[in-house]
Amino acid sequence: MNAIVLAAGYATRLRPLTEHVAKPLLPLAGRPMLSYLYEKIAAVEEIDAVHVVTNSRFAADFRSWAGEVSGKVPIVVHDDGTSTNDDRLGAVGDIRFVLDAAGLDGEDLLVVAGDNFFDFDIGEYVEFWRAKGDGSCIGVHDVGDPELAKEYAVVELDGDDRVTFFVEKPEAPTSTLTAIAVYLYRAEHAALVRDYLAEGNSPDQPGRYVAWLYPKVPVFGYRFPGNWLDIGNREQLLAADNRMRAEQGLPERTEYSLEN
Asked: For 56-70, what is the mean pLDDT?
């Protein structure tokens, strides 16, 4: 199995912090956000390599980060050739880009957004997925608030945890169970990304691919325990930073800073 970390966005909501630093490389308690994610991925025995896909603007920074990481799982940084928010390939487009660039056809994939911050065990997620046999899998988390659910993809599962409903950012959520950007794709399901894009579907928002996929093949939902933050704004970034600072015995901040 190979992992793909989606890190080619421009994080416009976090500017000016992200003018010169890619969001996954923003520090939490003095360490790049991506370092925490890498450690969780690398702890999964089945992972052969971590493929980080980014853009031309930040590719050199990611390669510098990769060169400083000490871990048993190799990191491959892919530059998708885009340089602005206007010409980006989109998350689904970047999955296809890495499939082609790295020759990953025939490989099962773990696909994770680079701005995810969580404390659950990806290895347990993989075990759940393997037990389901022929399906792919998405991570789901109950946010507990219908208003908050409007910001995410809302999911419904049957008694076997198979996805029966999936819609991005609904105006009237039927559930507070939401998808998070941690996906496990069987090799044959990952390859269908090309068909999805050839049909003219949106290359943005990786959840849109799941919405297209689940009526065609089995897709299951794994209910992640513990805490999760989708770091999309300063409040979530500050919360993640303070959480890691607390774990390391550092004082809490009232405002996020790039300084340690």
From this structure: 93
Q: Is 153 within the bounds of a domain?
A: no
- Specify the long-range contacts of residues 213-218, CB closer than 8 Å, at least 24 apart: 213/136, 213/189, 214/163, 214/166, 216/192, 217/135, 217/136, 217/189, 217/192, 218/132, 218/134, 218/135, 218/136, 218/162
175 in a structural domain: no
User: What CATH number is attached to the domain comprising 238?
Assistant: 3.90.550.10
Structural domain count of the chain:
1
In angstroms, the CA 203 to CA 48 distance is 26
C-alpha span between 174 and 118 (Å, rounded)? 25
Residue 133 gets the label, from left (phi > 0), alpha (psi -120 to 50) or beta, of: left
pLDDT, tens only, 214-230: 999 999 999 988 778 77
Q: Identify the H or E element spanning 187.
A: helix 187-190
3-state helix, strand, coil in the chain (%, to 5): 30, 25, 45
What's the token pair of residue 9?
Answer: 């966005």
**Once rounded to an integer, what is the mean pLDDT over residues 94-102?**
96
**Which structural domain, as residue segments, surrounds residue 105?**
2-134+182-247
Q: Considering the entire predicted model, what is its pTM? A: 0.93
Residue 126, classed as helix, strand or coil, is helix
Q: Is residue 9 part of a domain?
A: yes
The answer on pLDDT for 260 being more than 80 is no
Q: Is residue 151 part of a domain?
A: no
